Amino acid sequence: MSKRFESIIIYFLVQLFRFIPFPLLYSISWLAYILAYYFWGYRKKIVFNNLTNAFPEKSPQEIVFIAKQFYRNFCDVLAETVKGQTMSESALTKRFHVLNPDLLNNLFYQKKSVISIGAHYANSEWGKILGKQLMHPMIIIYSPFTNKYLNNYNNRKRVKFGMQLIPFFRTVRAFNELKNDPHCFIMGVDQRPFDQKTALWLTFLNQDTACHKGYEQIARKFNIPVVYSDIQRIKKGFYTLEYIMLHEEPSQVQEGYIVHQFMKTLEEIIRKKPENWLWSHNRWKYKRTEQN
To answer: Does the pTM exceed 0.90?
Structure first.
């Protein structure tokens, strides 16, 4: 299948979901869960291996229960993401609510930029509405899709709500160019780094884990406050976001401190509701060596 044809199919799927009401949307999601878990077995080995290693204190029955909840959540978020491509500003605002916008807005009034780091947890895709809800101009640092047609389409939908998009390979350049103007830079940093040798290795969820540290290096260089965006589902199809300050003066702390704070915060959140994290990602594919 060509990438253009693939993008056309997805485009028509998105347009179809425009007319599907949410009760029917979650019926479709439930069917997708049955297929993904019981028949397809999508990345099932990775999911169970990750859960077993992360929670050695849990019984096999408890691991199965969390795995099933994860697949339900995964399918719900996937359906919501497709639906979100055609949702209006008012619809997204009703379903995605910031609990403490003043934390960021006060930094804006002080003419300070902020780095907002997040995780593949709950539904972060609806966060594109933040461009309409907060004072800072919002910039997403993203990894482009290999399919340029899908990449262009997805980007158009994100900028519709005031977001700006910068590919990850232009990150440092963007911070240098915008250092005199307050912006909010949004980064997802919980997954496996591209370069394991330059990563910071920590214990996370009971495992030796390579962690991104580039965002901390930038924060310390420009002394930009770093917050974690904690997204939680309050009920099906409704989410809240609460900002957690990790440090307001990164240049004043030792190297690695902010990464430690983020990973510690994320682990605490995951342990409370583990089904909401992306367990299908092969997070621990690479192991630590003597050189790391």
So the answer is: yes
How far is 254 from 106, CA to CA, in rounded Å?
A: 25
Q: How far is CA 43 from CA 47, 232, 278, in A?
A: 6, 24, 11
74 lies in the same domain as 164: no
Residue 136 structural domain? 89-276
Residue 292 domain flag: no
Note the pLDDT tens digit of each residue in 189-232.
999 988 777 899 999 999 999 999 999 999 999 999 999 999 99
Whether residue 1 has pLDDT greater than 60 = no
* Domain-located, residue 282: no
- Provide mean pLDDT across the span 47-54: 98
Task: Identify residue 164 by its one-letter amino acid code.
Answer: Q
> Both 42 and 12 in a single domain?
yes
